[in-house]
Specification:
Order of helices and strands: HHHEEHEEEEE
Strand order of the largest sheet: 1-5-4-3
Strand content: 5-15%
Distance between the termini: 74 Å
Number of helices: 4
Helix content: 40-55%
Number of strands: 7
Largest sheet: 4 strands, mixed
């Protein structure tokens, strides 16, 4: 009687495309759930990037989307901006366009922000340094 090894038993199963997709989908679901549960803007941005990547390129696209997920910048009012420190004498710095419509880089950290929902000239908070900048 021949003895079966674990690799000989699992090899054909793991090479099956259906099994691969099931494992990848399970891992993707866990990744997105973990990032959404984080509750931070960075986690939500990465989860949104993962979801977008999943639609575009299945599991590999989801991983790339999560890694490069931009934080979704929310507009804040002039009065709320004072909660993050005094208004700079020269005014709030302006973000740098990132080469994609609605995407900018923070003047403080260089982090990528999706500001499509923020009007031009609107204020956005950099979550890393808790400072405010303007959308160009």
């Amino acid at each position: 009687m021949s003895q079966l090894t674990l690799s000989a038993t699992l090899g054909p199963v793991l090479t099956s495309m259906k099994t691969y997709r099931l494992i990848a989908l399970s891992a993707l679901t866990g990744l997105i759930a973990g990032l959404m549960g984080c509750g931070t803007p960075a986690g939500k941005g990465a989860a949104a990037g993962a979801a977008t990547g999943a639609v575009v390129g299945e599991p590999v696209g989801a991983a790339a989307g999560a890694a490069g997920g931009a934080i979704i910048g929310a507009a804040i009012g002039e009065s709320e901006a004072t909660n993050y420190g005094p208004v700079p004498k020269a005014g709030y710095p302006v973000a740098t366009p990132a080469g994609q419509p609605g995407m900018v880089r923070s003047p403080y950290t260089g982090r990528l922000y999706d500001v499509r929902a923020v009007p031009h000239g609107g204020l956005v908070r950099d979550v890393d340094v808790n400072k405010v900048f303007r959308r160009p």
